[in-house]
Amino acid sequence: LILVIPGEKPDERKKVVKELKKQGVCIDFQPLREGDLFSWIQREVKKNKVDIQTEAVTALLDLIGNDLRSIQQELSKMTLYVGEGGTITSEVVHLLASRHIDQNIFQLVEYAARKDIEKALREYYDLLLNKEEPIKILVLLARQFRILLQIKIMGDRGYSPQQITQSIGLKPFVFKKAYDQ
């Protein structure tokens, strides 16, 4: 019997968790770190006899995030596009990759911060065309601005990027994107 519990680590003080550990084996699956993601992506494309440029890997992670299933789907699409012996470039990534809503929100906030209202509105309308709920967009925008405010306040107080990342609970590449905004 295999039991998969998605989400946070189970509370080991609870009786049911103690019993599960006593009766079986518990394996904790952590998300891959950025360096491991790079290696994983390169191995995946090599299986299909395709190369991928470092800039393309970075672009893919920026657009998709670290969800392995989404990355795998995008890589399948790109390897078919470039064909055996081909190379996935950042241009191919930007041409073919489906953007995740978080990426659209990052872009929307970036345009708003630069006071580029036309592009910000275009990004917003693209989200609506993709059937994203306006309330969901609002919640994600509020979250992004809250993250930016926390980063600014903590940075002004002398916290290091690593301390800020740990305190806010962001993945390093998410922090880097927010910090750059």
Task: Describe this protein's structure.
The protein has 181 residues and is mainly α. It folds into 2 domains: 34-96, Helicase, Ruva Protein, domain 3 (Orthogonal Bundle), CATH 1.10.8; 101-180, Zinc Finger, Delta Prime, domain 3 (Up-down Bundle). The protein is built from 10 helices and 2 strands; from the N terminus they run ααβααβαααααα. It has helices at residues 15-23, 34-47, 54-64, 68-82, 90-96, 101-113, 117-129, 134-156, 161-168, 172-180, and strands at residues 51-52, 87-88. It has a two-stranded parallel sheet with strand order 1-2. α3 (54-64) packs parallel to α5 (90-96), α6 (101-113) runs antiparallel to α7 and α6 (101-113) packs across α8. The radius of gyration is 20 Å and the shape is globular. The mean pLDDT is 86.
Task: Give a nutshell description of this structure.
With 181 residues, this protein is mainly α. The protein contains ten helices and two strands.
Key terms for this structure?
two-stranded parallel ribbon, 181 residues, 10 helices, Zinc Finger, Delta Prime, domain 3, 2 domains, single chain, Helicase, Ruva Protein, domain 3, mainly alpha, 67% helix
